[in-house]
Design goal:
Length: 215
């Protein structure tokens, strides 16, 4: 039987702010995303560039295998925040464990909407999905991608923001010798072991953090 793919997202919640009503939309299909606009608070700034700036990039993730795009939409057509998750890139170390690993990729809220707790809502929406229990979900925080200038945070404060966002969902920091992560002490590697991940797979993951690949 042919699977019918919905062209509409799942509206998880909505709330009213001083800047209008914001809706949190999960599992956004590319056909839906193509009709939206990115807020002006994403882009290239003096000391910071958004990781994702074009709708096409979000659409590509939404169309990938088990890729998920969760967004905050204001006034029905303006993206105020996004959380794009996907399997690791083929050339990344973490892809060595195949579909066991699931990357919490780009999470960003527009500079114009950072007072409404949008990031917390995006994270909660993704990390309460049953799908996550079969995976080792991980997040890599590279300090050179953080909006220190726009937030007013120091690197250490920005790092603590990441920890605070993910620790309620049983994420923890793991040591890794992966060069891009170790190159700066502020960088973070966090992971959550799903409840249905077996001990053998957890062991494979722990060894992979040290660059040891097991079949």
């Amino acid at each position: 039987m042919e699977t019918i793919v919905s062209s509409e997202p799942e509206i998880v919640s909505s709330f009213v702010t001083s800047q209008g009503r914001i809706a949190i939309c999960a599992k956004c299909p590319a056909a839906f995303l193509k009709n939206l606009e990115m807020d002006s608070g994403f882009g290239n700034f003096r000391d910071y560039s958004s990781i994702i700036q074009q709708l096409d990039e979000l659409c590509t993730i939404a169309e990938s295998k088990d890729g998920t795009v969760t967004i905050a939409v204001i006034e029905n057509n303006l993206i105020a925040g996004y959380f794009a998750c996907h399997y690791p890139q083929p050339d990344a170390r973490w892809s060595k464990l195949g579909e066991l690993m699931y990357e919490l990729g780009a999470l960003e809220v527009s500079r114009n909407f950072r007072i409404h707790g949008i990031a917390r809502q995006l994270v909660r929406t993704v990390l309460t999905e049953p799908f996550i229990e079969d995976k080792i979900a991980f997040m890599v925080g590279y300090s050179w991608t953080w909006d220190v200038d726009g937030s007013g945070f120091s690197l250490d404060e920005y790092r603590r923001v990441h920890l605070k966002l993910l620790e309620p969902y049983n994420f923890q920091e793991f040591y890794t010798n992966e060069l891009n992560i170790r190159i700066r002490e502020e960088n973070i590697f966090m992971a959550r072991i799903g409840s249905r991940v077996c001990p053998a797979d957890y062991k494979r993951f722990k060894r992979l953090t040290l660059g040891i690949v097991e079949s």
